[in-house]
Design goal:
Blueprint lengths: L1 H9 L15 H17 L6 H23 L9 H5 L2
Helix pairs in contact: 1-2, 2-3
Length: 87
C-alpha cells in the first residue's frame, strides 16, 4: 500500500503527504508502477486471492492513470493582448 500511495501521489491522484499538493511526475510514477509490477511477478503464486486481487486492482488503476496522463493532449496556450500587439 505504501508503494501504491507513492505511485498515486506521483501521478496526481492524491495529495503528496509532505507538501499537501497534487503534482504529476510521470517518471517517478512509472518507477513506482514498475516496482509494484516487479513485486507482483516475484510474489506470483504466493499471495492469497484477496491480496492478488488487491495488487491487480491497484496496478490496473495506476497504469490507466499513467496512460491517461501520457496520452493527454497538451494544454492550449492562452494569449493576451500584449502577445498580439507585441507590447
Amino acid at each position: 500500500m505504501s508503494i501504491a500511495s507513492n505511485a498515486a501521489a506521483s501521478l496526481g491522484m492524491m495529495e503528496h503527504p509532505a507538501t499537501g499538493k497534487r503534482e504529476v511526475d510521470l517518471e517517478l510514477g512509472k518507477h513506482w508502477i514498475d516496482v509494484l509490477g516487479m513485486l507482483q511477478q516475484k510474489t506470483s503464486g504466493n499471495l492469497l486471492p484477496p491480496e492478488q486481487r488487491l495488487l491487480e486492482g491497484l496496478l490496473a488503476d495506476l497504469r490507466m492513470q499513467f496512460v491517461s496522463l501520457t496520452n493527454a493532449a497538451p494544454k492550449a496556450r492562452t494569449y493576451s493582448g500584449s502577445d498580439i500587439t507585441g507590447a
